[in-house]
Design a protein that fits this description.
This protein folds into 2 domains: about 5-210, DHBP synthase, CATH 3.90.870; about 230-325, Threonylcarbamoyl-AMP synthase, C-terminal domain (Rossmann fold), CATH 3.40.50.11030. By secondary structure, the protein is an alpha/beta fold. The chain has 9 helices and 15 strands. The protein has helices spanning about 10-20, 40-50, 80-90, 105-110, 120-130, 150-155, 195-205, 280-295, 310-325; strands at about 5, 25, 35-40, 60-65, 95-100, 115, 135, 165, 175-180, 185-190, 205-210, 230-240, 250-255, 270, 300-305. Bound molecules: threonylcarbamoyladenylate (TXA) and magnesium ion (MG).
Length: about 325
């Protein structure tokens, strides 16, 4: 079993040493756990793709501990990026910027741009300070549910990772929002832990990534992703319990809680947020799905949530979970 270590200084130093030796370390961020490799080490990056069974066309995010780290990673940093970093870093916002040639092509899948983010988690920041910038995808096998706790990572991999640093449950719970600043107009490539509304309040209207959807620029744009092994069906209406049509036991992922009565009641119920708070719902989304996926159910029904604020990121994950659920999701 991959060891889970408390985030003590000695363990952080051991993790930095492992990273310097080309090994992989899973670490906590405020969004989800990352599977980190030293960003300049092409061999270690290759291991990330291998361990995750991730296709090479899908580039990684480089994690930094300060905007100053970008001087080695990016070509130029546009004024708009500087404004966004000032306002939202550290935090769940990834920026796609022109890349410098110090970053191996493997990290960016040969693209002329690199995705960068400064996570808002003390363990991640300290690890990056000790080890340097880390290229890290989410620490789950490609296409599967994202990990929001150290045990989620431990359960998902048999080996290939030196250690998992335990930073407790992730406070945001969905991946970072990805914004491309490659062209004149900012383009939202993935909805995530920072809402579109919050970004637009600072820089005005942004375009949606649909215009770039023909290339899989973010696996968020592949249909099946973030998926449980148990078949999942998304219910159209918020708050309503659907009728599970398949045979056997089913579980319900409820938004605010449900009144269960009569026949056809779900065997297991997970409630995202009893008060209907979308931040709480996002933070709990993947842990609820992991529990439902392990409950030995024949199916999962998930209620829709309102699509404002973080609700847009939650619905994006649920739609992809529905498309990719089952024992053999797309891409694995
Ligand atoms: O919250 C997060 O972003 C987490 C934590 C660990 O930081 N990381 C994460 O990484 O979600 P991952 O690999 O699961 O998703 C990274 C996304 C991918 O969809 C990838 O396609 C996109 O970032 N990406 C990376 N570089 C890009 C680039 N140069 N242009 C466009 N998209 C890029
Ligand atoms: Mg991922």
């Amino acid at each position: 079993m991959i060891p889970i270590l408390a985030p003590l200084e000695a363990n952080l130093r051991a993790a930095a040493k492992a990273l310097a030796a080309g090994e992989l370390v899973a670490f906590p961020t405020e969004t989800v756990y990352g599977l980190g490799a030293s960003a300049g080490d092409a061999l270690a990056l290759a291991r990330v793709f291998e361990v995750k069974r991730r296709p090479f066309f899908d580039p990684l995010i480089v994690h930094v501990s300060s905007p100053a780290d970008l001087s080695d990673i990016c070509g130029t940093v546009p004024d708009l990026a500087a404004r966004l970093m000032e306002k939202f870093w550290p935090g769940p916002l990834t920026l796609v910027l022109p890349k410098s040639d110090r970053i191996p092509d493997l990290a960016t899948s040969g693209l002329p741009t690199v995705a960068v983010r400064m996570p808002a988690h003390p363990v991640a920041l300290e690890l990056i300070r000790l080890a340097g910038p880390l290229a890290a995808p989410s620490a789950n096998p490609f296409g599967r549910l994202s990990p929001t706790s150290a045990p989620h990572v431990q359960d998902a991999f048999a080996g290939g990772i030196a250690m998992i640093l335990d930073g407790g449950p992730c406070s945001v719970g969905v991946e970072s929002t990805i914004l491309s600043l490659e062209g004149e107009t900012p383009v939202l490539l993935r909805r995530g832990g920072l809402s579109r509304e919050d970004i637009e309040a600072v820089i005005g209207p942004i375009a949606l990534g649909a215009s770039v959807a023909d290339l899989p620029q973010a696996p968020g744009q592949l249909a099946g992703h973030y998926a449980p092994r148990t078949p999942l069906r998304l219910l159209k209406s918020a708050g309503g319990r659907g009728k599970f049509t398949g045979p056997g036991r089913f579980g319900l992922l409820a938004f605010r809680g449900v009144d269960i009565s009569g026949s056809g009641a779900p065997a297991v119920i997970e409630v995202l947020s009893p008060t209907g708070d979308l931040r709480e719902a996002a933070a709990r989304l993947f842990s609820c799905l992991h529990r439902l996926d392990r409950a030995g159910l024949d199916g999962i029904e998930a209620e829709s949530v309102p699509e404002n604020g973080l609700g847009a990121a939650i619905m994006d994950r649920l739609r992809k979970a529905e498309a990719g659920s089952g024992p053999n999701p797309e891409g694995v």
